[in-house]
Amino acid sequence: MPKYTDQAIVLKRIPYSETSLILDMYTASFGRKSFLFQGGKKKKGNMLQPFTPIGIEAYSRSDSALDKITAIEWLGNGTQLYGNPIKASILFFVNDVVAASLKEESSDDKMFQFLLEVHHLLGTATKLTNFPIWFLQTYVEQLGIHPNLISMDADVLDLQEGELLSTVPFGHQYIKNDAIKIICRWSELSHSAILNDKISKTERAIIMDVWLQYMAHHINGFSKPKSLSVIQTVLSES
User: pTM for this structure?
Assistant: First the structure.
């Protein structure tokens, strides 16, 4: 069976035997896909941290739905981000969100390139407290479910219709909070401007919660990641 090469982002590693792993990844060519990596624990186990971009060589097997990996290599800065505890916490959070929401088993090059960019931008970022919100805001846009901005003075998010409003909708589930005005303002800012903007810890926590509630309303099976409390604690102390 012919070998092929691909690029992938590790989402989850599952022990398969004493030495082997099953890798659940988001790939450039197939979307969400799982692979068998025999001997992976001993060969490259330290490389396979959550949300690490890798290049792979693999081949498909007629007797299994799991393609088999024969070689991997780091892409970009590999696992170097895990040396920074704040960036590592953000990576775990981003990974949890993606793993819980991106389940399509088909190629989406635009999404894959966006996820690579997230990893790269986190590696170069010096301002980190707003990074998770920038990610959620931009990720929702990549998913095609970003709420429509009806009013620049909006302080209400209509969860059902996906609209940012200045008045409470009738008969719909909604969130009303002054922090939603920041979401409206940030919709017109660049990545750099968002990371450098100053907001309070309370506003930051509210905005993250708003985006996660919105995603749970629009993505089947999505729920707030367990890493949310960790990232909020880490960022509140940074």
Answer: 0.93
Percent of the chain past pLDDT 70, that is, above it, reads 96
CA 17 from centroid of its chain's CA atoms: 28
Residues 6+ apart with CB under 8 A from 111: 26, 102, 142
Burial class (CB in 10 A: 0-12, 13-18, 19+), 144: exposed
**Ordered domains of the chain (ranges, CATH):** 3-74 (2.40.50.140), 125-237 (no CATH)
Model confidence pLDDT, tens digit, residues 12-44: 999 998 889 999 999 999 999 999 999 888 766
- Considering only CA atoms, which of 92, 104, 91 is closest in space to residue 143? 104
Listed residue (99, 107, 117) closest to 53, CA to CA: 117
CB 12 within 8 A of CB 24: yes
Locus of tokens 């707003």: 130
